[in-house]
Amino acid sequence: SSHLQKKRRAATARRQHLKSAMLQLAATEIEKEAAAKEVEKQNYLAEHCPPLSLPGSMQELQELCKKLHAKIEAVDEERYDTEVKLQKTTKELEDLNQKLFDLRGKFKRPPLRRVRMSADAMLRALLGSKHKVCMDLRANLKQVKKEDTEKEKDLRDVGDWRKNIEEKSGMEGRKKMFEAGE
């Protein structure tokens, strides 16, 4: 058993090692992503927001203010549209998740308990009050006399032709006949 324990320990150690390696890799990837985002942000700002040079006259200053206001409005509209889109998508996601949850819930198999139940009780449970037929299985059985079984035994020994026919019919029968070389 010590061999088994060593194997288990080795597997656990390997699992731990892999886990830490994956975490390390993920951390590195996150750092790279953050750096890339920062670079992207700087490039975007450089392209879309040139350094501000304030004009000298009042007239030019007012013009600049009007331009900036127009830009702010455009950006605000864009931001609003994006937010609405995001909310819509989030709602759709939530709905789909709820549907998934509902579906999972519907088909969850209950833990089954063994229950001793007569055929009558089973039919009553399934059919409710509509169940009238009594299912006393023993009542419908044919009474067999001892002599009858003796006769059947003799017939079996001779070889019942019906049994023989059934054995030779269908693919199974053909297979048996082929294997027997008939």
Automatic annotation (TrEMBL):
Molecular functions (GO terms): actin binding
Cellular component GO terms held in the UniProt record: troponin complex
InterPro entries assigned to the protein according to its UniProt record, in alphabetical order: Troponin, Troponin_I, Troponin_sf
Keywords: Acetylation, Actin-binding, Coiled coil, Muscle protein
Pfam families cross-referenced by the UniProt entry: Troponin
Coiled coil (UniProt feature): 18-106
One example of a Gene Ontology biological process annotation: skeletal muscle contraction
Function of the molecule: Troponin I is the inhibitory subunit of troponin, the thin filament regulatory complex which confers calcium-sensitivity to striated muscle actomyosin ATPase activity.
Family note: Belongs to the troponin I family.
Assembly mode: Binds to actin and tropomyosin.
Protein name: Troponin I, fast skeletal muscle
